[in-house]
Every structure is written in structure tokens, then in C-alpha cells.
Amino acid sequence: MNLRAFFEKYPDESSSIEGFKTRRLELGVVCKKCQHTEHYFRKTDLKFQCKKCGSRVSLRSGTVMENSNLPFQYWMLCIELMTLSKKSFSALEMQRMLGHKRYEPIWFMMHKIRRVMSKRDEKYQLKGCLEFDEGFFERVDNKEVVKEKEESDSGESTQNKRGRGSERQSKVLVMVESEPSLSAPKKGKPNRKVGYLKMVVMEDLKAATINKEVEKSVDKSANILTDGYTGYNKLVEVIAKHSVAIEPNKTKSEKIFPWVNRTISNAKKGLLGIHHNCINDQYMQNYLDEFCYKFNRRYFGDKLSERLLIAALETTWY
After folding, report:
1. Which end of the chain is more exposed for a tag (fewer CB within 10 A), N or C?
2. C-alpha 81 chain-centroid distance
3. Residue range 156-202, pLDDT digits in tens
């Protein structure tokens, strides 16, 4: 829905509470003591009370909102805004739009929602024909920032490596479903049909590390297309078929790997435009998970916020 429709449906805190309660009942509330499924709802303390044993459970309990003191309307609106745009929102912008005094609770709420997106995508494996490539994303490491400041104060050089060995970049394995198109492609469009996408921050890009991630994220029957990077040499140990295409010409390479190049480029532009590449390495995966979640559900339209709300109610924060 658009923002006008959202505020018509959830104009205040009580309507937002009613919306969360309705969806929790639709999903089913199970008593933790006796496993009974019928409950009363207590408006006085926002708790479900079991009709059989009388045990009570909070409306927030068992959801991403557990242990949060932020209003329900904040959560509802944050989910709506994070799915309304193809891009993202900075926590500072979200804080301004919600009118909240403190930055940290809003930042934490957004990262909780990003983890919900991640948990949802972890349930699925990539299948069919896949394109693989490595992406290198600018990030901020607090320890490195302190080290650079100390070197700068002492007059020492603060130059960092660039490219694959850079200390200021997160190594990301990018995997995207890319099936050959049966129909003739439109002018300027790739001749391959894109499916689902996964981006995983890696400790390193060695063959053993890549294979471990592929076993978890990719179906064994998949056909993977990669460039000549040596880290992919042992992929045949974990998947059915591995093809290699080495093309030094960038223009031709983009036609061989159309979607993996586009997704890496779009993700980098999004992080640069919204967050200005000031992302701590500890949270890089969360931002990439948000990008992948929206990409994988790009045709959901108005249903996206509703689906994310359901996922938030089914995911316990821990």
C-alpha cells in the first residue's frame, strides 16, 4: 500500500496493535505450557491468555519485537517504508520520519528487520543455471580507523591496498540464477532470464570456504558458470556441473555474466547513495540481505510489506 492508504488503515497506536493481534491469531498462538491453541486477548496488558491453563504470553513474545519498547506503530511503519522503496532508508532518515528522539533504537529496529529478511531467504536454495562472481564492497572497520588515525598523527603512511587484497573492502560471494531466455531479448536487455539472488560476506575466497557456502546455498543439481578465479576450481566436488568462461574484454564479459555484474553494481550504488559507504564490517551482511530480499521479491508489489510483517511475527529475535 502507499503511505496514504497505510495511515488510513493504521492511524494510531491502537489500530496498529489490532493489526498485529489479528495477524498473530491468523498465524496461530500456541501456549508454551500446554500447547493449547485457543486464547483470550487481554487489552489491559496486551497479552494472550490460554483458555485451558491460563498461562499468558505477550503480544511481542516470539516475534522480532520481543524485548523492544518501541511503539507498535513504529514497527508497522518501518516495515512499510523499508518495503515501499526499491532502495533503502538510512536509520537517521527513518528516525526523522518517525519523529523519535533517539537514534540507536531506530537503528537497532531496522537491523532486526533486516535479519528477518535474511532468515527468510536462508530457507531457499538456488537452482538451475547460476552465475558466480566476487564482489568487493567498501566498509568501515573501527579498528582500522583508529590505526589510521594513529599513523596519521605519527606522520606514517596510511595508504591501503586496493582491489582483491584491500583491507577496507568486504569480500562477497555473489550467486544469481540466470537461465537462458527462450524468446528473443529486447534491445539493450540481457539474453538471460534472472531468478533469485544471494550475496554472502566471506572471511576469505579460498576454494574450501566457497565450497562450504555453496553446499548450504545451492542445490547439488545446479549448473554454475564462473570466471577463471582459482577459488572456484573445486566446485565440481559439491555441484553437478561447473563451466568456466574467461573473457578479458569487459564488454564481452558483461554479456556472458549479465546479471551478476548488474546486481553487484546496483548494490554498490545503493550502499554508496544511501549509506555513503560508511557501513561497519560487522553489519555489511545485513545491508546485502535487505538488497537481496527486495530483489528476490521484485514482483510482489503491494504484498511485500504484508509478507515481511508475517515473517517478522514468525521470527524470534535472539
Report:
1. C
2. 15
3. 544 555 555 567 899 999 999 999 877 766 766 777 889 999 999 99
Per-residue pLDDT tens for 243-283? Answer: 999 888 887 888 889 999 999 999 999 999 888 878 888 89
d(CA 223, CA 199): 18
- Here the cell at position 133 is 562472481
Whole-prediction pTM: 0.88
Asked whether 83 and 282 are in contact (CB, 8 A), the reply is: no
What's the DSSP call for residue 128?
S
Q: Report the candidate in 270, 134, 262 with the shortest Cα–Cα distance to residue 189.
A: 262
Query: How many CB atoms lie under 10 A from the CB of residue 118?
Result: 17
Phi-psi region of 138 (alpha: psi -120 to 50; beta: other; left: phi over 0): beta
Label residue 64 exposed, middle or buried (CB < 10 Å: 0-12, 13-18, 19+).
Answer: buried
Residues in the chain: 318
Residue 188, SS3 per DSSP: coil
